[in-house]
Amino acid sequence: MDADVIVIGAGIVGAACAHALAQAGRRVCVLDARLGGATGAGMGHLVVMDDNAAELELSRHSVAQWRALAPRLGADCAYSPCGTLWIAANDEEMAEAERKQQRLGALGIESRLLGAAELARAEPALRAGLSGALEVPGDGILYAPNAARWLLAQHAASVHVEHAKVEALEDDGTLRLADGSRRRAPQVVLANGIEATTLCPELPIRPKKGHLLITDRYPGTVHHQLVELGYVTSAHHSDGDSVAFNVQPRPTGQLLVGSSRQFDTTDLAVEAPMLARMLQRTLDYLPGLADLNAVRAWTGLRAASPDGLPLLGKHPWREKLWLAVGHEGLGVTTAPGSAHVLAALMTGATPDFDAAPYAPRGLREVA
Amino acid sequence: MSDQTQLHIDGQLVRVKAGSSVAAALRIAGGMGAARTSVTGQPRAPFCGMGVCQECRVQIDGRRRLACQTVCAEGMRVETTA
Ligand SMILES: Cc1cc2nc3c(=O)[nH]c(=O)nc-3n(C[C@H](O)[C@H](O)[C@H](O)COP(=O)(O)OP(=O)(O)OC[C@H]3O[C@@H](n4cnc5c(N)ncnc54)[C@H](O)[C@@H]3O)c2cc1C
Ligand code: FES
């Protein structure tokens, strides 16, 4: 097939871009090296995040798209509309829950404050003495690797996926593959996650390692995706290691436990001290976890940009190259919104919301 | 000290050599020594015998544990269907 666009990377972001471009009438070739990326390692929380206006816009647009797709998603995508409970441990965090409700409410996003007693009824496994929570019922969860495959399969006639590793981007926009062959297309999308800097060393992307652990099946233990409100402060430190309470009820009855953040390591080994810190934090909220059997622990690398927003748009100086990188810990959520923005820019359409905050920025000139 | 241990597997009394693992006891209890059922309903049995594959998860005295990593104790109650 003579493609109009080549997408590098078949993770959730590349898959969503291919899907959106095919919807816009483009013939798309997706090249993936099967290195295994963040899509196979993450939690798959579909969550409206409101650290800043641009993140809120992108995540709410994206969560709405996932909700619209949900009835058609394959069963193995394991979508569940479980909603999020933002847990307030004390009065200050409860005040933050109220402010969060106002921020979400201003954009018409439904949410509900739960007092201490109501929270205890909603999630009896949480420890006593918590102040309450903000429930965001429109959030959900997904099994991202299957969702990526599903997105790629939707326009089989115009989306073609190939197993190939891109080794270099030449100055005229030609791709050099590992087998020595070359590929060209009028437009190229770089959506290869943490590997983006191997092809474009000028990109301001840093790895942020995360640990996850999954338990055996204990159905009914937890009902919502549970996140501590303190998560927002701990997750966005730009330096140093941190952990936050974050537990997800998988449709199988398993509990997926996060989350940790470590900068500037690409060693994927599970580190016992970090895992212990993360689990200790979980026990602060869910003491019963100590009696549950863990099945597996693993790590993944988030591709972090300096300001936490993805880079979406034309590369400032590389011919034909478009960027869809830097999705950090929110790329499963924001894949559809990112793809919408990028496909609109690439086809000369107007995105549903302002694309300016995501425009590629912070690139270093390298000789 | 007796060289035998008695335990219950799904309510059935099973006698094993002292020091045996629960995985061995499951085998002695009969059949393929099935341990658990997958989320799609397939029967699963101890496979690696060294705590890696997670296929031998059973309920032991009320807690989910690995049969291959647990030594049989007198009067232990093992459930494969919990
Ligand atoms: C621990 C952890 C928890 C997370 N939790 C969540 C969460 O709850 N919610 C959420 O929204 N997000 C979460 N994320 C973030 C999310 O997983 C990522 O943002 C998202 O998966 C990034 O997708 P991607 O397609 O950009 O990259 P990737 O999934 O990394 O895909 C990149 C693809 O590019 C391919 N590739 C790489 N180099 C080349 C090359 N040279 N040639 C060809 N192909 C190449 C790889 O094989 C890979 O398939 C989490 C991440 C981690 C690590
Ligand atoms: S048989 Fe593999 S973990 Fe027990």
Taking pLDDT < 50 over at least 5 consecutive residues as the criterion, the unreliable ranges of chain A are none
What is the straight-line distance between the termini of chain A?
35 Å
- Helix/strand/pairing category of chain B: mainly beta
Largest interface: A-B, 9 and 7 residues
| Total DSSP helices of chain B | 1
Q: How helix-rich are the residues of chain B, as a percent range? A: under 10%
- Major β-sheet profile of chain B: 5 strands, mixed
- The Cα radius of gyration of chain B reads 12 Å
Tell me which ligands are bound. flavin-adenine dinucleotide, FE2/S2 (inorganic) cluster
Count the beta strands of chain A: 19
How large is the share of residues in beta strands of chain B? Answer: 25-35%
Report the average pLDDT across residues of chain A: 96
Topology as H/E string of chain B?
A: EEHEEEEE
Strand order of the largest sheet of chain A: 5-6-4-14-15-16-13-17
Structural class of chain A: alpha/beta
Walk me through what this model shows.
The complex is a heterodimer of chains A (367) and B (82). Chain A has 367 residues and is of the alpha/beta class. Chain A is 28% helix and 27% strand. Chain A has helices spanning 12-23, 53-69, 91-106, 116-122, 144-153, 196-199, 231-235, 272-285, 331-347, and strands at residues 5-8, 28-32, 45-46, 84-88, 112-115, 132-136, 140-141, 159-163, 166-169, 175-177, 182-183, 187-190, 206-217, 225-228, 242-249, 254-263, 294-304, 311-314, 321-325. In chain A, the strands form four sheets. Chain A has an eight-stranded mixed sheet with strand order 5-6-4-14-15-16-13-17. In chain A, helix 1 (12-23) links the parallel strand 1 (5-8) and strand 2 (28-32). The relative contact order of chain A is 0.21. The model of chain A has no long low-confidence stretch (mean pLDDT 96). With 82 residues, chain B is mainly beta. Chain B contains one helix and seven strands; from the N terminus they run E-E-H-E-E-E-E-E. Chain B has one helix at 22-29, and strands at 4-9, 12-17, 36-37, 43-44, 57-60, 63-66, 77-79. In chain B, a hairpin with a 2-residue loop joins strand 5 and strand 6 (63-66). The longest helix of chain B is centred in the N-terminal third of the chain and has 8 residues, at 22-29. The N and C termini of chain B lie far apart (32 Å). The mean pLDDT of chain B is 88. Classes of the chains: A alpha/beta (367), B mainly beta (82). Chain A binds chain B through residues 216-218, 252, 291-293, 295-296, and chain B through 39, 54, 57, 63-66. The structure holds flavin-adenine dinucleotide and FE2/S2 (inorganic) cluster.
